[in-house]
Amino acid sequence: MKLPESFKEKMAGLLSRKEYTSFISSLDEKPLKGLRFNPLKMTSGEWEERAPFPLKPVPFCPTGYYVDEEEKPGKHPYHLAGLYYIQEPSAMAPVEVLDPKPGEQILDLSAAPGGKSTQIAGKMKGKGLLVANEIHPKRVKVLVENIERMGITNAIVTSESPENLSQTFTGWFDRILVDAPCSGEGMFRKDPEAREFWSIQHVEKCSITQRKILDHAYAMLKTNGVLVYSTCTFSPEENEQTIEQLLHRYPGLKLESIEKGPGMEDGRPEWSIHQHQSLTYTARIWPQSGIGEGHFIAKLRKTEETTPSSLPVKQARVKKGDLAMFEPFARTCLNMDLSGSLYQVKQQLFMLPEGYPDLKQVNILRGGLHLGTFKKNRFEPAHALAMALREDQVQHTLNLKSDSDHWKPYIRGETMQTDTDHGWTLVTIDGYPLGWGKDVKGVLKNFYPKRLRLLSLK
Ligand SMILES: C[S@@+](CC[C@H](N)C(=O)[O-])C[C@H]1O[C@@H](n2cnc3c(N)ncnc32)[C@H](O)[C@@H]1O
């Protein structure tokens, strides 16, 4: 592999000769591919029964699997149904270290495209509140799509700088993940652009950004809260040195030891300025380990007393006339009660997650589960709602089978023939939702979102 000369020189200076040889030769091997099944939609037993290609478990992530190089998991309809998320295996490790629990308030500060947010949500089981934030306005759209595809109901998607977000959420979160923007050396096997873009100056620039992000993350953490910092790069400036400086700035933060399974190594105190031995508590994954492309992870706990912002819980609210449009839909289409937590923003209807705070100064792209849109005299359900339902929660389904090609016309946006007149119908693949159709007198009008039709057929 063609690598920047100054990168090679730097790594040769850091690693022993044996380590360097095995590191450099591993970069000539094929990158590892992986996916995580979605525990919000199925159990691991169901997944193992249904998995459409051969899989090998990722040792450090119970929902993670290695996928053979020749498989194309992005083309299977189970991907469209949100049954799994395609993710490089070592990127599955930080959320296992974060260890989110149902009912907690959790922030993913740099969340797009959503690999780690969707993993966090899987562990929260729909309980508590996940704030998935992405500063970049374009990238946040993909984040919303992935949150919706995976059927997540308890997330707010925001697009703010860490600085702005910390004005609202002082001392508020039980757990925060900072999966920082970095120089991406762990992407070298996967992404030629990462190799071309690399420079010593970029490493330095990233390390400055990371330090600023961490200052704001610290401010947003509760007393006793857990902060996990991760990067997909090898440079000490962005890893051990960033953590070392963070510990100097905040004596109230304590490093906690990460349990290392096979292939995970300790962080390197000798690569930091003050060589704190506790930096061995951090974890490194190297490509030569054979378990993933490369990551650095640190786990910290805040011991300093912090007064949390007092944020009032948002009150559910829908205009009476609009509610009268939603109710017939709910009565004739759903087998579940959604009333009580409904909230309206102009023509859009949402289901608020439990304990959803009233946020005035935050740019919110998705405040909970998008249920649908009030049109002229009718309610049209959202794709996000379809993706968050189970087939037993609706009255009418049209089930397509993944072992025939019948699902393809649906995701191309074509109408389909039925011999019924059921109205709103959940279209499923082997029983798992793909989207909505409206069945009127034997013809199912297609409501698979236009923006996804193109993506799905690529
Ligand atoms: C490594 S990626 C996140 C990947 C994501 N956690 C996942 O698992 O899918 C880092 C993210 O940080 C965002 N970012 C860039 N500059 C930032 C800043 N100053 N503050 C916060 N986030 C930033 C990038 O737009 C990018 O989406």
From TrEMBL:
One of its GO terms (molecular function) is RNA methyltransferase activity. Keywords: Cytoplasm, Methyltransferase, RNA-binding, S-adenosyl-L-methionine, Transferase. S-adenosyl-L-methionine binds at S110, A111, A112, P113, G114, G115, K116, E134, D179. InterPro entries: Methyltr_RsmF_N (IPR031341), MeTrfase_RsmB-F_NOP2_cat (IPR049560), MeTrfase_RsmB-F_NOP2_dom (IPR001678), Nol1_Nop2_Fmu_2 (IPR027391), Nop2p (IPR011023), RCMT (IPR023267), RsmB/NOL1/NOP2-like_CS (IPR018314), RsmF_methylt_CI (IPR031340). The active site is at C232 (nucleophile). It holds the Pfam family RsmF_methylt_CI. Residues 7-303 form the SAM-dependent MTase RsmB/NOP-type domain. Transmembrane segments: none annotated. One of its GO terms (biological process) is RNA processing. NCBIfam families: nop2p (TIGR00446). Belongs to the class I-like SAM-binding methyltransferase superfamily. RsmB/NOP family. This is NOL1/NOP2/sun family putative RNA methylase.
